[in-house]
Amino acid sequence: MKKVMVAAVFAVALAILAANALGSAKAPARASASSLATASVTCGKLRTIGMAAPITGPASDIGNQQVRWAKFFVKRWNASKANRNQKIKLVTGDTQLGVDTAFAVKVAQSFKSNSKLLAVVGPAGSQEVVASTTAYKAGGLGFVSGSASRTSLTDGHTDGNRRGYFYRTVPSDAAQGPTVANYMTKTLKWKRVYIIDDQETYSQGLADGVQKILNAKGVTTKRDSISQKDSDFSAAIAKIPSNYQGIYIPWQLAPQAQAFGQQLQAAGKGHIKLFGSDGLFAPGVWKIAGSYDSAFPYNPTDPVVKAYVKAHGGNGEFFGLPSYVAAQVDTLAVTKACKAGHGKTTRAAVRKQIAKTNIATTILGFRVGFKSSGEMKLPAAYGIYQIQKNGSFKRIG
Amino acid sequence: MSSTPRQALGNLAGLGVLLAIWVFYAVYFSPTQGWTFFLQLTVDGIILGSIYALIALGYSMVYGILKLLNFAHGDVAMIGAFIGFGVLTLLGGPLSPAIPVVALVACMFVVAMLGSGFLGLAIERFAYRPLRDAPRIAPLISALGVAFFLENSVLLLFGANYRNYDGYDLISYNGIHLGGSAGVFVSYLGVMVITGALLLMVGLVALVRWTRFGKAMRAVSFDREAAAMMGIDPDRVIATTFFVGSALGGAAGVMFGLVYSQIYYLVGFLAGLKGFTAAVVGGIGSIPGAMLGGLLVGLVESWAKGYLNGNVADLVVFGILIGVMLIRPQGLLGTPALQKV
Prior knowledge:
heterodimer; A: Rossmann fold; Rossmann fold; five-stranded parallel beta sheet; 12 helices; B: two-stranded antiparallel ribbon; two-stranded antiparallel sheet; globular
């Protein structure tokens, strides 16, 4: 029996190791990058772009918002008579953000192998961007994320160099952190803030940034962390002193924030307000009334935004809005590259066009163009929202 | 294969001394000192441990009778959680239940336990029974296969989306304050889970000790061939054992969903491993051992999260598993297996 038991324990240990290994899976060694990047593609009347988003999984709510916004752009583009010979086909890949970054890598590899695919929208999570960069670079593909906001993604060294390949249509956390910290201190007048990250680098980066600013402003902070796989928050909640005014949770999984909020209330600490980040911008999923959230800017008066809201029964699903712009960036780049190549193009040529992006009017409310780092040229302020009793998010700052 | 009363007493005394040293350190010397914090974590650990204990019982019962480590058991609990959620949704959901809440919760438990029980029967019939006389590694591999089959079936049927029970909305956010408003808080939902788990465990002990089925189960566990010669149908006893163990897993799944809200297709993986750890720590094959092991694992996890960090809680729990395997492979309340010669 002892041998069987020992064997079983080793089997369990192996299973845990395997699960961890999958969780941190990296893309395989780069293939012949130059051949894929410079391989000639006939544009035809239907050009293909990919979209990597969490269509299922714990972050599926925000992922589907992104897909719907990107599809909304494609639908409008294809409906235009001027584009009848340059239509766009959007191929989606499910990255299951929050389950395992290996899914994002698989999607990147499949996009890389799809010879018709010219550019990519996504992925959604910063950790997914890091994990799948090798595959995208190996395929010579430019990828434009509508939500990966980790500051170091574009610095060219901390999380790997993806310059010339990666762009984003959201401001980085360097803009989000100060907005959040200022709102906490100036508007909410918080003096004691508890900060809990979810152990992902997106979350840790934001938590570090906000904590640093709060401490500099004389706010007392305490720090803890939970895992994205946690369901039981009782111990973390027990550690939170009752006299704290706010809990900052820069997480990515809205169902987890909802469960945390419920357990916080059940522990008799519902008077402490929650403050989330753009990763939790999921009306109807995270619905703890009175909680705050920060999210990127958009122009509510733009006719496209109004049309989307109308087409979706009044639900703006604004988390997906920058993905509309990302699809717009990719589409315009593909169209220009095809035109320049007289009906033929390459992924490298499309990337060059992405880098040259200059869209005067966007639904974000400002001109969109990119620096060489992949960041947008114009600075954009994050908005502050509060969750209402019906679960909707109302902009308050 | 339970230990003798003297051995068990000795083990429990040793465990008691260790716990006393820990309590003394936690309350008086840890960075987060004080009884309130310690007791709050302890209560939370008991709630978690009650769920682990129910899962551990399934592992232990199957191992006791078949010497099989049923690694699919955590996923049976996951299926139970999904069945419970299905019943909850069908009957109006947590915010607007179509029937009284007590009846709704009872329905969730009954249907989830029956569903999981029958699933356990099917697993035994199709995945384990054909391998009963095969080398011991074969059913172990089969168990892992069944686990992956169940996980991927749920993924295929329901997707990878999280489902939220909203258990506190359904039952209540209120609870009992022990020692005033700044004291220890136990939610009514927590009380329900502890009481429910306790009742199920008492019921199981009664079933095993005082019924004909229990006697048959112990006989098959002791010597399957001799039991068959005495007129007991081992296949039927084994199948019933799977049914009961899986039903307990189903109940654990519903409890997990109610207290911790989120369920998804992989939720049974880690919970199952913790249940397995609990069964091994308590002494696999021993029913009281599974209960004790479950509580211990729940407590250790809660204390580790509270006094150390959420990052290291699993490290501590599985470290204990390895420690027990090295120091006392038969577990706290188990006895070393006799080698028949």
